[in-house]
Each structure stands twice: as structure tokens, then as C-alpha cells.
Amino acid sequence: MSKRGYFITFEGADGCGKTTQAELIKKYLDDKNVENILTREPGGSELGVHLRKILLHYEKPVSNIAETFLYLADRAQHIEYKIKPALEEGKIVLCDRHTDSTLAYQGYGRNQDLETIKRLNNIAINGILPDLTIVFDVDSETAQKRLKGEKDRLEAEGMEFHKKLRAGYLDIAKHEPKRVKVVDANQDIEQVFNDTIKIIREFLNL
Ligand code: TMP
């Protein structure tokens, strides 16, 4: 049996630039012929595409616990039908948001009990934890400026919410320094990429 691939996740508050960086990392790995997939949460599976629409654009009130379960349903489906099979094929899985988003947004952001969120998360991921997580840390003013145009349900939460997320992510990194690395995302795209690829190359031994 071939070796299981590595699971790398990209995290950060809205406006941190992680999606651009995830695409650049994918291109870097493609150019080096390293087999990989780039996926995201919510919306990485077929069912998840439907859940993403609800999560980001449902206009009536959504209870905190309902929101949490919807993200976890998206994750469970994504793990089972996309992430796990790709890892078993030995691929590197790059994922734009994963478990730490639920801890940061629904836990730190929505003030829900962190241990409960972790327990629920563990059920959804069925033993598949990220091997490496990059947190793109950006100050709240810069992030808000980057969020142009119409905002989705969570982006519309504003500055105070963003500050809680940022503090949450830094706390997660502090508790798990081996898995979670923080990159200064206030810098320009190229510098952020240089810092990120350095971590990934070291991790993958490239
Ligand atoms: P995206 O815009 O980075 O794709 O993420 C969609 C939004 O969903 C973003 O505002 C963060 C939020 N989110 C959560 O609140 N909890 C989660 O578990 C995940 C994966 C995303």
C-alpha cells in the first residue's frame, strides 16, 4: 500500500488572503509534480456546495448550534468522500479552512464552549486531523479593507468579531505550536508566499 499523503490546512479570519496563498501553493506543487488536490470548507463536496449556500447566504436567523452542525455536516461529508480517499491515494491535500475554523468562528467568535466544539469536531473528522496548519494572521483593520463588495453572513459580522477570531487563531497556534504555524499576512502577497512555502517545503522535505 502506498504511503498516506499529508493533510495541510490554511486558516485565518476573512480577508487574510489564504485563498490566494492556497492557489499559489497548489501551483508550486503542480510545477514540482507533487500530486495534490486543493479543496475547501464549506463546499468541498457535492452536498457541501448546497450547505455552503445556506451557511453563507441564508437570510433568516440561524442559531449558533445549528450553524455549528451545518459546518460539521459539510466537514463529515468532505472527509469521507474527498479528503480521506485522496490521502489514501498518497496525495497531498491542501484545504482552505477546516476544523480550526469551527473552533475560531463558532467557538471563540460566537462564544460557544470550546471543549464542546472540539468534541463535536472530533466526531465529524473521524480521526483525520490536519498534519500541518498555516494561520494567516492579519490585523483587523487591514482585513476589513481587503473585504470589498457584498459581504456574506459571516464577513458582515464586523470588526469586533474579527478581533475575537484573530485572538482565537493565535490562541490555537499557541496551544499546538508543532502543528500550527503563523504567517504574518499583513505583508504583500509575494512575501507571504515566501514565508508560507518555506514552512511547507521544510515540512514535506522538498
Ligand atoms: P471562506 O469565505 O473562507 O470560504 O469561508 C466561508 C465562511 O465560513 C468564512 O466566513 C468562515 C466561515 N466558517 C465558519 O464560520 N466555520 C467553519 O467551520 C468554516 C469551515 C468556515
Briefly characterize the structure.
The protein is of the alpha/beta class. The protein has helices at residues 18-31, 46-57, 64-88, 99-109, 114-125, 140-146, 159-175, 189-204; strands at 7-11, 36-40, 92-96, 132-137, 180-184. α1 (18-31) crosses α8.
Fold and architecture overview:
The protein starts with 6 loop residues before the first strand and ends with a helix. Helix 2 (46-57) runs antiparallel to helix 3 (64-88), helix 3 (64-88) runs parallel beside helix 5 and helix 6 packs across helix 7 (159-175). It has 8 helices and 5 strands. The protein has 206 residues and is an alpha/beta fold. It has a 5-stranded parallel sheet, with helices on both faces. Thymidine-5'-phosphate binds at residues 14, 40-42, 56, 71, 97, 101-102, 105-106, 154-155.
Kindly report how far apart the N and C termini lie. Answer: 22 Å
CA radius of gyration: 16 Å
Side by side, the strands of the main sheet go 2-3-1-4-5
Number of strands: 5
- Average residue pLDDT: 95
Q: What is the 3D form?
A: globular
Determine the strand fraction and express it as a percent band: 5-15%
What share of residues is helical?
A: 55-70%
Q: Note the quaternary state here.
A: single chain
Describe the main β-sheet briefly.
Answer: 5 strands, parallel
Low-confidence stretches: none
Structural class: alpha/beta
Helix-strand sequence: EHEHHEHHEHHEH
Bound ligands, each once? thymidine-5'-phosphate
Total of DSSP H or I helical runs spanning 4+ residues: 8
